[in-house]
């Protein structure tokens, strides 16, 4: 969502930089995006459509024309729909192209076809989003630019220097200028943590206990804002009576692995601040009780009243406050409801869904053979001979190797689209900068071409991008609706923050909900709490190490894996162990090691570092199998759901690490 300037020579992007005139991007682009000229021009990009010639998964293909590819897809889909109905078709399209139309219209195609629908994003943010919605409501959080008014920033489970670079730049400036204090709460001593005034290396999965412990101290020390609690929140009395007595500092120290003194210090700094801003990350939600964790932390600014102060409050996402008419693109026609496939259960559903089974699969802007949990199941599902699979991607990915037809995708620099940030309050038109490489075509373009071949008559499938974009504004409300089309299409950034009057709450009560009736109705605890998860405890009794999964600095999932420079900067796919754990196993830095549990085994390069605590194995990012010694981390992760939002539980994974015999061949 950065505002970028692409320097173009003869239709070719030669350099990409942050736009110095944009108020938020302010001339800065991260180490990955700075290399996007290498990404668009990568020699590894697919040049033309391909048709499978060998067994699925082996990557044997021959080039075919676009017309032949699209004709074959349409005729196979028509035959399958005739025999089994549209539910036999699954569109598995996700977010690698962040444009509202290149992302949205592929969904629009499958919506109009009446196919089985993807419950998208459960691999990413549905847990944290649901927990936020149940607490604050479906509305954006604090404006990151309000940090100029903050007197304390807490990065809670967010490695800002890795995943939120523009906010990080603001925090660094405020630190330098006026000594703005920063607290980092993260099981990994991240780059952000090394710059913190207070760093708490919390045990994975214990954030709810810490947040409730802080509330306990705030109440004990008379630092709770009783006026704010009475006027803007519901249910705190119950939390105070039933929950907080269970979380005195000594017990919280036992649960979280943090010293009592640090917990007291955190509570004192937070309680005495006038405008503390909590930047919530998703890391704490990638495990069984992730919803409880995020919800408990999001309640904290209600106890101090910081939600009512400019520069205070909490920020998870901002997107919910941008009220465009998304349905114009995503739901042009088609039945109101349909059968759902959860994004993270692709393998399970390809293997076991019945009446009808999934017979045709279209994967776009997503690499589930690496990024989805239960990769062994995903591979097995994709290998089904009776499944007709199409993959649209700029690169030959682990997933594309299983396709019957692979279509070359244009990248964002080769398309026109409208972008709205989800971590800041800005929106912008991104103009096509370069001619697509080879025969690559955009998601938008391919969705329209397939819609026409499938006989869909919705107008959106006939409009050029800037006309389609105008449909998004019809019926839009709030600041986004006021965008002037002339300025928008000229590329001017549009500010979409509401006039500030305290954090709005969009819950059923209109207040911050310490007690949630909605959760109670779903059979979930209505009050925030922390309890040991029985399934996690059983795994922990069997295996000694817990998986910590966090982004790499130079690889974002697999989308940048086509850039040799970035692969080299990130280094070989690795795992990181604390020196005591490495020594106990006789393992040395740089060695190939085996990571295994009941699901299977993979092999990565070991790095030994005290940036993680003992008992934890950190695997940065998700890397393609060809880059690793063997396999990919999601082979070891289950497809169990989180407590809220049916999200992924990568970190509810326990395993062991041992030497990888040099003679050993790559695991099947
Ligand atoms: N173990 C573990 N697994 C995780 C996570 C974790 O923390 N731990 N994180 C999860 C999260 S948060 C997410 S969001 C997912 C991400 O998982 P994915 O959505 O699978 O992300 P990528 O691996 O980047 O794959 C995106 C693909 O889209 C392609 N692409 C890029 N641009 C375009 C385009 O314009 N059009 C088309 N058609 N294709 C394009 C890229 O080449 C790439 O192959 O992974 C999840 N998986
Ligand atoms: N470079 C890079 N940037 C990216 C991505 C990438 O892969 N690489 N992915 C993009 C995507 S799709 C997403 S969703 C965002 C995600 O970005 P974030 O919201 O920042 O979430 P995560 O990256 O999953 O994790 C952030 C931090 O949470 C910590 N953490 C893990 N478990 C716990 C816990 O139990 N408690 C606490 N307090 N902390 C914990 C991790 O160590 C990590 O440092 O980043 C986006 N930006
Ligand atoms: Mo994500």
TrEMBL record:
InterPro entries: Asp_de-COase-like_dom_sf, MoPterin_dinucl-bd_dom, Mopterin_OxRdtase, Mopterin_OxRdtase_4Fe-4S_dom, Mopterin_OxRdtase_prok_CS, Prok_Mopterin_Oxidored. GO terms for molecular function: iron-sulfur cluster binding; metal ion binding; molybdopterin cofactor binding; oxidoreductase activity. The keyword Transmembrane helix does not apply. Pfam families: Molybdop_Fe4S4 (PF04879), Molybdopterin (PF00384), Molydop_binding (PF01568). Its cofactor is Mo-bis(molybdopterin guanine dinucleotide). It comes from the Bacteria. The keyword Cell cycle does not apply. Keywords: Iron, Iron-sulfur, Metal-binding, Molybdenum, Oxidoreductase. Residues 1-44 form the 4Fe-4S Mo/W bis-MGD-type domain. Belongs to the prokaryotic molybdopterin-containing oxidoreductase family. This is Anaerobic selenocysteine-containing dehydrogenase. It comes from Enhydrobacter aerosaccus. The lineage of its organism: Bacteria, Pseudomonadati, Pseudomonadota, Alphaproteobacteria, Hyphomicrobiales.
